[in-house]
Amino acid sequence: MKRMTTRAALALTTFLAAGSALAETVTIGHFGNPTPMQVARAEGKFDAATGWDIEWRKFGSGSEVIAAMASGDIKLAELGSSPLAIATSQGVELEMFMLAQVLGSAESLIARDGSEIETLEDLAGKRVAVPVGSTAHFSLMGALDHAGIEASDLTLLNMPPDQIAAAWEQGAIDAAFIWQPVQNQILETGTRLATSAETAEWGFPTFDAWVVSAEFAAEDAEAVAAFAKTMDEANAAYLADPAAWTADSAPVQSIAAETGADAQQVPTILEGFTFVPLSEQLGETWLGSAHETMRDTAEFLNEAGRIDQVAEDYSGFVNTEIGSAATQ
């Protein structure tokens, strides 16, 4: 075999460097949840599959994601079902193309020890924190509706997760509806009153979705499909053998390193989510009826005075072509 000449080697190096320089930089928004996608993220699988130079940006709430999507600052992001309904009702040009995870016990309403809150009805007159506009906020409103309590009957405090954790330690709040890993942190000195799984049974289902700018989805459809495929494969790795994802396993250690979550708690956190295979998401239960879920959520938020209008049709905010291409 002939050795490569110095000139040829230099040419190849220049070509590869140019290719790297031409890679499109794409900023992707996420919430930093301790989920299987963090393993693929750590291993650079999303960059390799899409050809993008990905910058991951962590957001504290769905309202922050909506603002970034509306301004064009980011093209693709994780977004909860409640803020998704808010964004689409406001006409933000984005498309839901897959579920990230269905929320169960991963989001819960926790009462602080010593707050004298033992039931949902006891929330009246108390200080309850939640990131306003989030899925947790929607679930809280559902819990209040189920208990026959008006939001005006309590002091509702709008706080991102880190502020909830700090306020909890200071005794400045009596209860909070929040997600992981803050949920586990405050549970050490609190009691769970309700989960998103329960509020879903009461008629208020929630999930996290992956959304993309409609324009970007049309311009870079193959790469977005590759992103979806990689996400699905990451979830499939967990679904294949959840019991193997123990605190000392490589995947859980990777998740802990990426998110800052306690590795001992990650297996329990994962159990609080439901990861739906992309092939199943394409059916009527999920993406097939997502536009109806958006409208139902928007109508509730409108009646609660959280949004000013409800769109007539939300079907244009759901893209099933990306998932179909990803599962081929």
TrEMBL record:
Instruction: Please tell me one Gene Ontology term that the record gives under cellular component.
Output: periplasmic space
| Family annotation (SMART domains) | PBPb
The cross-references to InterPro entries, in alphabetical order and at most eight, read: Peri-bd_TauA, Solute-binding_3/MltF_N, SsuA/THI5
Which compartments does it reside in? Periplasm
Q: Known SUPFAM superfamilies for this protein?
A: Periplasmic binding protein-like II
Listed A to Z, the keywords are: Signal
Limits of the Solute-binding protein family 3/N-terminal domain? 25-242
Task: Please give the biological process terms from Gene Ontology that the record holds.
Answer: alkanesulfonate transmembrane transport
Tell whether Amino-acid biosynthesis is among the UniProt keywords.
no
Chief location bin: periplasm
Q: Where is the signal peptide?
A: 1-23
Q: Which family does it belong to?
A: Belongs to the bacterial solute-binding protein SsuA/TauA family.
Protein's name in the database: Taurine-binding periplasmic protein tauA
Source species, please? Limimaricola cinnabarinus LL-001
